[in-house]
Give the backbone structure.
Amino acid sequence: MVKVKPFKGIRPPKELVERIESRPYDVLSSDEARKEAEGNEMSLYHITKPEIDFEKGTKDDDPRIHSKAVENYNRFIEKGWLVQDSQENYYIYAQTMNGKTQYGIVLGAHVEDYLNGVIKKHELTRRDKEEDRMKHVRVCNANIEPVFFAYPDNDILENLIRRYSSFIPEYDFIAPGDGFRHQFWIINEEKDIKTVTKEFEKMPSLYIADGHHRSAAAVLVCKEKAKLNPEHKGTETYNYFMAVCFPASQLTILDYNRVVTDLNGLSSEEFLNKLKENFEIDDKQDKMYRPQRLHNFSLYLDGKWYSLTSKPGTYNDNDPIGVLDVDISSRLILDRIIGIKDLRSDKRIDFVGGLRGLEELKRRVDSGEMRMALALYPVTMKQIMDIADSGKIMPPKATWFEPKLRSGLIIHSLA
């Protein structure tokens, strides 16, 4: 049973939302954030990436950075750039990309559900990233940015969302960073709030789509607060963290592709010959090629595109991990041939989200920065849910959800 809770959101006034909203902290560099926030003292980057208020080159572990985050957060509230709602609400957040709209419900997710496996994860987290986000949540005493969840489709919630989305939205704008439309409504009717709570209670699980480190950090802060509170009851606000939950069928997962610096001492001919052991190869010459189905890959090497199709016996359709193209490519190409054992730490590999297109793969190889590129067929939401349900963990860098949630539309206070 999933436990969720409405909360008193801290939000920008309608007329300020476009000055405050931003991309998530982890999809851009400090220099990119500094440039986007230039001349805008209301940009949320002053809270989520406060290093932009210091000289370039300031180290990530500089203690001034997190202090600056809470200083800026308090300033935003004092100036009325962020205002807390007077009652507990749920919220609806809609994103439109390429004519397709997905509708999410913004809510407080229960920390205990994360700890007992009701909130299911499919990726490993890195302790250093957990620590960084934990410090940020701790000093601000708030979830500044939401986590991205998926839930099993629910007709009652769909009808409720459809009704609210027929009203004039609280926010409605095209984000300059992604060019996508973002809309926001408030679920403030008591009967509708009860309906949302009740319908989530019927669900067996929620699934983390994006934001594993933010989830883990929120849980760590909760455990800290519970330990320090001699009167801890489990009902305090800090027992919940902010999430936007979308119906699984609405989500778009793009390919998450690989670029590699070298062929492990092999010539191009030797590399292609080794690939023939496990893949059928079709030379597409200079015609740009995108993977067409599961177990089909696209290789760009020496100005040519190749279709690679996994031979029977190289994967296991009955294994939720073994069937994944990220597993096949990691085992049979990156590890066995290239010698890349750890996708998380090896400096010879980089990853390119599918929104950048095959053109970005071609550009990075043609520039000489990379030796070859590998494009994968996107993972499905069903695959992610099957893996999470089985208790297994996906290989690193397997999923790229788009559009990304914009930050700054709403904040969840732990106070």
